[in-house]
């Protein structure tokens, strides 16, 4: 690998890095993606799990961002029907906050800023006597967006990139980079303690919250722009309501909070917007954020929550460009993406990415490569809009594939069929193969199976318990200590066996 000259070296294995890697590799470029930890181990796995236009951004006149995001909903529904599924949202009308005419005008724009193909339009809504909300909330509005498995969206983009020829290197930390003779020379440490040096014609800094620290490690970098880190936290509680819809709640401070059905038996509540300093991987929810979320939910819902109801919480740190908006409250800082291209005459380019949303990652990738096209004129044309991610091939809808999976593997329980189909799509058949019984899948390790674990390690870059429980699957919630220990033992035994086989060779 050290002897390979890459067209592009990408630093960062989140959604932006993985999306760019897939797009670039599909255009015929040689690509290396470097991730210091696991894929999606930073911001990309700690989102609100939504593909959405961003209704609240209309208040800040971010029409371009909303239009692009609305269009991308339709693209991603086609690209990954197993990971991206429609979801209806209900917004109770709160007397004294946004007037009804303003919400209706916003929803009209939301319906018409971009061509809407598969999602139903918004409508005025009246809550009935069986409403889960308090009696004072009698009217509201309903509109459409989508939910997504965020971490798996990253992994499937990395898998697509790999299938197009990209090298995906997890647990490879960049410790320095410098230009020499018109090329980038990038120094890398892997988790085995080895040091590598890769060469590339162009370098992309897609490190998310670490974009500034990467720039500081790059010799000759001239970018001095700062990054504003904003923490968003979520809590997960037992399911608040039985219906399939989500709720969007208005707060008196102008922000909104989502209550989203999650993993059938839970509700996901979030997010906060809090300025953050410190190491992004150490971010966690604090007492003020918990109080903020629960107080808002309790002001709307009949069922009241306390901190004791929280079964899980998580926090992610969003990297926003620090500029003229430095004095704004965090919620008002743009989520649009921005680029900084460093190029000197005859020198290799460095492209740094600031901001961005999960929803618009594909357009961000196209824009990033357009910036680099003058330096890599051999690259092909954009192509990802009409492709499907691994697992989503020839799939009309998730519900259709769940039925198909059940017919092929009738020994799977209904819960297993739904979990496996929504996690892997058609990729599931790569590890289910010709199984005719649960025994063929090996011992159960919590909600997972041994053959499934083997697949995740061999095919999806999973190495640790956390990789498997929180990013490749979402089975960590509710897993017992004994099941967790059994899975950890199984992983360690397999890693030891693999090491022995390598040593023997």
UniProtKB/TrEMBL annotation:
<feature type="domain" description="Alpha-glycerophosphate oxidase C-terminal">
    <location>
        <begin position="384"/>
        <end position="490"/>
    </location>
</feature>
<dbReference type="Pfam" id="PF01266">
    <property type="entry name" value="DAO"/>
</dbReference>
<dbReference type="InterPro" id="IPR000447">
    <property type="entry name" value="G3P_DH_FAD-dep"/>
</dbReference>
<protein>
    <recommendedName>
        <fullName>Glycerol-3-phosphate dehydrogenase</fullName>
        <ecNumber>1.1.5.3</ecNumber>
    </recommendedName>
</protein>
<keyword id="KW-0285">Flavoprotein</keyword>
<dbReference type="InterPro" id="IPR038299">
    <property type="entry name" value="DAO_C_sf"/>
</dbReference>
<dbReference type="InterPro" id="IPR036188">
    <property type="entry name" value="FAD/NAD-bd_sf"/>
</dbReference>
<dbReference type="GO" id="GO:0004368">
    <property type="term" value="F:glycerol-3-phosphate dehydrogenase (quinone) activity"/>
</dbReference>
<feature type="domain" description="FAD dependent oxidoreductase">
    <location>
        <begin position="7"/>
        <end position="323"/>
    </location>
</feature>
<dbReference type="GO" id="GO:0046168">
    <property type="term" value="P:glycerol-3-phosphate catabolic process"/>
</dbReference>
<dbReference type="InterPro" id="IPR031656">
    <property type="entry name" value="DAO_C"/>
</dbReference>
<comment type="similarity">
    <text>Belongs to the FAD-dependent glycerol-3-phosphate dehydrogenase family.</text>
</comment>
<dbReference type="Pfam" id="PF16901">
    <property type="entry name" value="DAO_C"/>
</dbReference>
<dbReference type="GO" id="GO:0009331">
    <property type="term" value="C:glycerol-3-phosphate dehydrogenase (FAD) complex"/>
</dbReference>
<keyword id="KW-0274">FAD</keyword>
<dbReference type="InterPro" id="IPR006076">
    <property type="entry name" value="FAD-dep_OxRdtase"/>
</dbReference>
<keyword id="KW-0560">Oxidoreductase</keyword>
